[in-house]
Design brief:
It is built from 13 helices and 15 strands. By secondary structure, it is an alpha/beta fold. Strand 7 (137-143), helix 6 (166-185) and strand 8 (188-194) form a beta-alpha-beta unit. The protein has two domains: 6-198 and 236-261, Rossmann fold (3-Layer(aba) Sandwich), CATH 3.40.50.720; 207-234 and 267-300 and 321-374, UDP-galactose 4-epimerase, domain 1. 42% of the residues lie in helices and 15% in strands. A seven-stranded parallel β-sheet has the order 5-4-1-6-7-8-13, with helices on both faces. The structure holds ligand G4F. Ligand G4F binds next to helix 7. Residues 102, 104, 143-145, 194-196, 205-207, 210, 228-230, 233, 235, 269, 294, 296, 299, 364 line the site of ligand G4F.
Amino acid sequence: MEWSNGMIPILEVSYNCEKNSFDHRNITGQDGAYLAKLLLEKNYKVYGIFRRTSTPSFWRLQYLGIQDSVNLIPGDLMDTGSLINAILQADPTEFYHLAAQSFVEASFDEASATGDITGVSVTRILDALKLLKKDIRFYQASSSEMFGNGEAPMQNEDTPFHPASPYAAAKVYGYWITRIYRESFGMFACNGILFNHESPLRGIEFVTRKVSNAAAMIKLGLAKSLRLGNLKARRDWGYAPEYVENMWKMLQNEKPDDFVVASGAQHSVQELVETAFGTVGLNWKDHVIVDRKLFRPLDVPALQGDFSKAANILGWRPKTSFDDLVKLMVEADLRRWKDCLNGMIFPWDIPSSVNIERENEFYSGSRTYGSKRRN
Ligand code: G4F
């Protein structure tokens, strides 16, 4: 096969605050896996940096059937030497920085670690690239969480930031340092301001996947109830594989720039639950328990993105509707659980012995601190 020049996507990682380590089940994230697949299809040679752990898991790469096609390089966002080593090994032409402590709720308990991993690490990477590969094209995974508690009903590239969590504050830092390296050192550095993007590869700690997995388990009699926090929160949810395509388009643009990537539609967590349970013929009111312990100390009430700049300049538009997204996630979890009950072994993030009530507590952090902090 003919390879074009190399690149590195840094595979997104999740941080497990309870174990004080990166969660081995999320070592390579949703976006890293989908982006790697897209780039392989475009004949790139793909390198992914992963953090060493005692039990690494590459289930998403395996799920997409691409693990053997990705060159995995061990590295750590907190360790500049390992980043330099990865850049020298891969000699990339494009660099997608997707790694972060990306769970907003955990950032309230791991605030300074989140600042370092999610925020300051962007500078470590940019410094390494400035010294070794200044002409590289760099993508920074910025987030709609940066808009936080602002007043604009719809957010675009000119909307002021008003971060509402340590995670969002760290992302604002990453956003600005990316712009500063672009404007001061002339680097081709772009921010993708991505609104929530979901898929069957989403981590189980995020609300969409928590709900799709619960709907599937309850339908199959494997669980009875689902505990959730703020049902009134409203988000702009889109389909992750479409969003990674936009990341790539940003780096093919003639000049470096910043873009909002969103579906343009907004739904509440309650609508998400209604749709998910409706997909399997269940009434959500019979199963969902609102648990005050799962409310965040400060939550972003509503987000809705205006993607017209991406549409006009990059020719990008979202394709999958909210209803179709929720349906495809529930159906994927239903299929997994059915296959699992039939004895099939396949790459997945949930062991067959899972106890949903315990998982709910675990992934929402209530076992760690909820009862202490918010009783
Ligand atoms: O699914 P979430 O945890 O996503 P959140 O906080 O909006 O952030 C995600 O999207 C951002 C934008 O792309 C990323 F930057 C970020 O890294 C992450 O991927 O929560 C969504 C909403 C929140 O308002 C939360 O309070 O759902 C509400 N919610 C209600 N009950 C819950 C729950 N969220 C979670 N995770 N678990 C619950 O039980």
